[in-house]
Design a protein that fits this description.
elongated, 14 helices, seven-stranded parallel beta sheet, Rossmann fold, alpha/beta, 14 strands, 2 domains
């Protein structure tokens, strides 16, 4: 006898603005204790962006049209046990899904999507599709009030604020962090992460510039490709920096100015150790790492203009005061010199942590609700 498949959770992003949040929920479900399968749908032109957002294993389909037949066809084909819909309403589709008894949760619904011109004919058309949702997560109190006026019981409404993309803190070896923290001691340190060959001279120049204020500065730098570690160490040494190579087990003693961190899987260690980081590839192109991983563990972020495909993450950190853009190697040196003191990075780091984790509790609660629905049935 074959074992039954885990329940299928359908997550749908109605538009581009909700795609990152929908994928963030998929990540939370993927690492939850209970096992579920994932069906992710989005508009056709957005499906190509799913991989760039780090989506876990999931079946991908185009979001169905706003029609009863489209909804019934998807249910017949995939048989999900619960739907989590991000965005605005599709009345015909949702009415059909509700009539089939599919448990549904509505997320990130906003006031302007609920009959913005008043509670007349448009409002009456929304009552039936809204009635199918066992839980609705509104972005603010005004949305919650409008939902109640549309007939949604108050105990089905939760005001969470807008759920946004978050990030898992990158992993690290706690014992190694303790060892390296003791080796580095009180020295100021920064971490240029995943730099590309065209940025080596700029990193060396930034170190020399910032060293005028902090003469004990340690640059911990990782190459984009770990195999480039020895070459990076040679180039930094030729630039005049006393350099150690991590893969050769050379320690960053007091006289060492640059440590080439070329062992794989250690970015989380260095983000935690260095209060300031620079996202490699953003200064000379073509792209850089996702900055949320650094912000999630308390590192202030410096970056250049090449931020694709993570422009939304960089924008959010910049607006929160947790990231600073530089346009050249000389600007990088000036910014580093200003931030390497103890106060400014702490302020930026806290702002970044708050921005990245603001939706984490809501995702945790939503994940629990989905698991209960998938394995028990119905939305409590």
């Amino acid at each position: 006898m074959t074992e039954p498949k885990p329940p299928l959770v359908w997550i749908c992003s109605d538009d581009a603005g909700n795609l990152a949040a929908a994928i963030a929920l998929a990540r939370h479900l993927h690492r939850a204790e209970t096992e579920v399968r994932l069906l992710l749908s989005a508009p056709r032109d957005e499906l190509g962006q799913v991989a760039a957002h780090g989506c876990p294993p999931a079946d991908l389909v185009e979001s169905p049209a706003d029609s009863g037949p489209a909804g019934r066809a998807l249910l017949d084909r995939h048989a999900p046990c619960v739907l989590v819909w991000f965005g605005g309403l599709r009345p015909a589709l949702m009415t059909a899904l509700g009539r089939r008894g599919l448990p549904m949760i509505l997320v990130n619904i906003a006031l302007h999507q609920l009959a913005p011109r008043g509670l007349g004919l448009g409002a009456r058309k929304l009552r039936q599709p809204l009635a199918g949702f066992g839980r609705i997560l509104g972005v603010d109190g005004a949305t919650g009030n409008r939902l109640q006026k549309l007939g949604v019981p108050a105990d089905r409404i939760t005001v969470t604020g807008p759920l946004k993309e978050d990030a898992d803190p990158p992993g690290h070896d706690p014992n190694e962090l303790t060892v390296m923290a003791e080796v580095v001691g009180s020295r100021p340190a920064w971490f240029p992460s995943a730099i590309v060959p065209g940025e080596v001279a700029q990193i060396a120049a930034a170190h020399k510039s910032a060293s005028r204020r902090s003469h004990r500065l340690l640059t911990i730098v990782s190459p984009r490709a770990t195999v480039d570690g020895p070459d990076l160490a040679r180039r930094l040494a030729r630039s005049g920096l006393r350099t150690a190579l991590r893969s050769a087990e050379e320690p960053p003693d007091e006289e060492i100015q640059a440590l080439v961190a070329d062992c794989p899987g250690e970015a989380g260690l260095w983000y935690r150790l260095a209060p300031v980081c620079f996202m490699g590839g953003t200064l000379s192109g073509p792209d850089g790492p996702a900055p949320f991983a650094a912000a999630a563990v308390g590192s202030a972020v410096l970056h250049g203009p090449f931020v694709q495909p993570w422009q939304d993450q960089y924008r959010r950190l910049s607006q929160a005061g947790a990231a600073r853009k530089v346009r050249s190697g000389s600007e990088l040196g000036v910014a580093l010199g200003e931030l390497i003191g103890p106060d400014r990075p702490a302020t930026m780091a806290h702002a970044g942590w708050e921005e990245v984790t603001q939706s984490s509790l809501a995702y945790h609660d939503l994940t629990t609700l989905i698991e209960d629905t998938a394995f028990v049935g119905g939305i409590a």
